[in-house]
Amino acid sequence: MPLGFPEGTKGLDVLKIAIEDASKKGITLIAAAGNEGNCKNPAPPACYPEVLCALSCDGNGTPSGFSPSIQINSEKKTEFLVPGEGIECAWIEPGKCHRQKRFPEHIDPLGPDEKGGFTYVSGTSFACSVLGGISINILERLYEVAIRDCGLDAESAKEAVDRVRRNHLIEILGRMERPERRAYLLVPTQVTDEVLKGYLDKSPRGLTVSS
């Protein structure tokens, strides 16, 4: 959900009920924190406990000035820092677009008759998409590990991955941080296939190994 609402917005009670209902059905929810700056809390619905909150940083892991600050010591942290600054994005705005960048030192502007191309954008809405992509990548890797290392058939692997998603996705995302270095940018390589297999092994219903 690349959106956010100011506190006190009319209709937030209806949104809160919908979020709670979706969470009870096992749906993973991700929302943008908002772009009101480091002194502000994440905006609804990102501030709801059922929702994973996407905070923005640059490519070096430095929190963006427009992004709300991360809660480091919360009991069950659902806020995650991912790139949301200077993201190359497809765009339609004459005079402000370029062809997709292939080399860091070269930007090829569009011609006067070309209406759309790419530009650079920033915001927690874009961080929200990145966090969603990282989460999907985790699920894809879990599925591969379930098939390759756990010997599951396709259907059993899907069920096992879904159980891990419902019960452990937040924990897996948290293991991509490096709090001992005060580094909270998610780094997917922090979580190895062996770590993911551990989550499959402790899946609540256990594994049904194919014959």
Written account of the structure:
This protein has 211 residues and is α/β, with parallel strands linked by helices. The chain has 2 domains: 12-86 and 122-201, Rossmann fold, CATH 3.40.50.200; 87-121, no CATH class. The protein is 32% helix and 13% strand. It has 4 helices and 5 strands, in the order H-E-E-E-E-E-H-H-H. The protein has a 3-stranded parallel β-sheet. It has a two-stranded antiparallel sheet with strand order 4-5. Helix 2 packs across helix 3 and helix 2 (124-148) crosses helix 4. It is globular. Mean pLDDT is 83; it is low at 206-211.
Topology record:
Blueprint: H1 12-24, E1 29-32, E2 51-57, E3 79-83, E4 87-92, E5 116-121, H2 124-148, H3 154-174, H4 193-201
Parallel strand pairs: 1-2, 2-3
Antiparallel strand pairs: 4-5
Helix pairs in contact: 2-3, 2-4
Number of strands: 5
Structural Rg: 20 Å
User: Which CATH-level-2 architecture of the largest domain?
Assistant: 3-Layer(aba) Sandwich
Determine and state the CATH class of the largest domain: Alpha Beta
The CATH topology of the largest domain turns out to be Rossmann fold
Structural class determined from secondary elements: alpha/beta
Low-confidence stretches: 206-211
Pfam families: Peptidase_S8
Organism: Orbilia oligospora (Nematode-trapping fungus)
Protein name: Peptidase S8/S53 domain-containing protein
GO molecular function: serine-type endopeptidase activity
